[in-house]
Design goal:
The complex is a heterodimer of chains A (344) and B (95).
Chain A (H helix, E strand, L loop, with lengths): L3 E4 L2 H11 L12 H11 L6 E5 L4 E4 H11 L6 H11 L7 H5 L5 E7 L2 H5 L13 H17 L2 H4 L13 E3 L9 H4 L8 E7 L3 E4 L6 H11 L14 E5 L1 H9 L4 H11 L1 E3 H6 L13 E3 L7 E5 L7 E6 L10 E4 L3 H4 L3
Parallel strand pairs in A: 4-5, 8-11
Antiparallel strand pairs in A: 2-3, 4-6, 6-13, 7-12, 8-12, 9-10
Helix pairs in contact in A: 2-3, 3-4, 3-7, 4-7, 10-12
Chain B lengths: L4 E4 L23 E6 L5 H15 L4 E6 L9 H7 L4 E5 L3
Parallel strand pairs in B: 2-3, 2-4
The chains are: A alpha+beta (344), B alpha/beta (95).
Chain lengths: 344, 95
Amino acid sequence: MSEQIALKDPLEAMEHFFMMGWTDGLPVVPPTPEKVEAMLNEAGLTGSEVIGRIAERNSVITAEKVAINAVMAGCLPAYMPVVMAAVQAVLDPAFGVHGPTVSTGGAAMLVIVNGPIIQQIGLNSGKNLMGTGHRANLTIGRAVRLVLQIAGAGAKFDQTTIGHPGKISFCIAEAEQEDWEPLHVQRGFQRTDSAVTVFASEGPNQIYNHVATNPEQLLLSFADRMTPFSTFNMQRNTQCVVVVCPEHLATIQRYGWDKTRVQQFLFEQARRPRADLEKFGFPVESALGDKDWITVAPSPEDILLVAGGGPAGSFSSYIPGWASMDQSVAITKPITTAAACGDT
Amino acid sequence: MAEPFIVLNPAQESIVSSEKAANRLTTLDDKVLAVVNNGKRNSDVILQTLLAQIKQRYNLKDVIWIDKKNPSLPVTDVMLEQLQSSHAVIAGVGD
């Protein structure tokens, strides 16, 4: 059981948390024992259950610490299964969470949610997808960051040079539809499953194209946006995320292109001559071999393609990755609720 | 008197560990020095330069050189085993 701290009232608690550095710089909801208990009940977990470890910091993350930080982030208990799955995902050894949370590269933890849970808890997959106004998205993303920063002692180690606002909160839901394979299905789950995918990401880059009338034109503009020299993706083996907005998706689907074909096209076109990188003095990781062309990701599948965004406007988004796949890869975990566990 | 408002500590209160800092060395003469190159670009250059200077100053018994393949992940168990026979370790960084 975590230490209990006696204070005068909620306002004093908020100030106390600022003083202790237990915040991301914004006010937090005071984590009372009752609120924390409600979080744990929703996830069907006991507080002492170990969710994962960060070996480099000798840190052990328990369910109670996740629940406390979720309360602080402003989550409702119904969000807790998503928070828990996301924390399990970032603590998976293949995600290598120490690196992206301390690196000068300043990665955010992008959380992508799929499945029925999106509707059940009111996650936003539409208008203002990466922006403001949606409690579930903003507080779930914030909770994951607070867990790593406070319970995982990340604040002590973070050496980020610039970073980006996604380090406060970065959580989106995919706008799933029948004729477009959702991300979690591509990664081995059923449509009826709920799952969360985490990805160590740089800041999102908007892709503006109001004029393309066919997939080739449109996706060539995507490829152009995806291939600046000064990203990890063009110097190492690194994954990336592309969020396709509804207007762009309509152009793609009008010509019968499916997700696999889009990924293949982007893989073939999002590349630059190796000689160009070397001309500008950019080093190319030896793991890329002696290929004449440097691609944005090592394979089509490493371009994680997601549908989302508002119905009006032709703005998609490219989200570069952090470091290389030897250091961090996207991880997908199932979302399990207490009801699914058989708990009450 | 009003009831206190109770909240829970969100951080790890303490890490109970049986580990303690190693005894400080007064000299590197006749000692085994381990060097861990973390794999960052130029980390090896810095460490080789440093090692050359140390060798000029001290009569090292031996040097254990370890190359991490991945700067973002912990050292492996095999590497930790190698380090056990050393008296001092220099862990290098670079970028």
